[in-house]
């Protein structure tokens, strides 16, 4: 099972962690979307730039390995969104399993199969 967690690590930074809890390696892991819930018009996200090397993808995750992407939420006016009581987070990611099947998963929901590799 591949799972995600997304704790706030500062007032504006979130560490999105995708963990391979399965027994075989997965590849092409990618964070597709991070947003607050409920989302507001114009909301988006970006990799945090002030935190050193950072990536939203991993070529390979062995069992028990994780990808951590440090991200910031941005509101419709381009300002960073700060952590606040009542802000829920939605994280969407994808990966390719050892059988060549693409999967898409939203944090807290069951994975969904892709028939073919999704467009990047």
In short:
The protein has about 120 residues and is an all-beta fold.
Can you walk me through this structure?
This protein is mostly beta strands and 120 residues long. It is 0% helix and 49% strand. The protein has no helices and 9 strands. It has strands spanning 2-5, 13-20, 26-37, 44-47, 57-61, 66-74, 88-96, 102-106, 112-114. Strands 5-3-7-8-9 form a 5-stranded antiparallel beta sheet, with no helix packed on it. The protein is globular. The protein starts with a strand and ends in a 6-residue tail after the last strand. The mean pLDDT is 91.
Sequence-ordered SSE layout with sheet pairings:
Blueprint: E1 2-5, E2 13-20, E3 26-37, E4 44-47, E5 57-61, E6 66-74, E7 88-96, E8 102-106, E9 112-114
Antiparallel strand pairs: 1-2, 2-6, 3-5, 3-7, 4-6, 7-8, 8-9
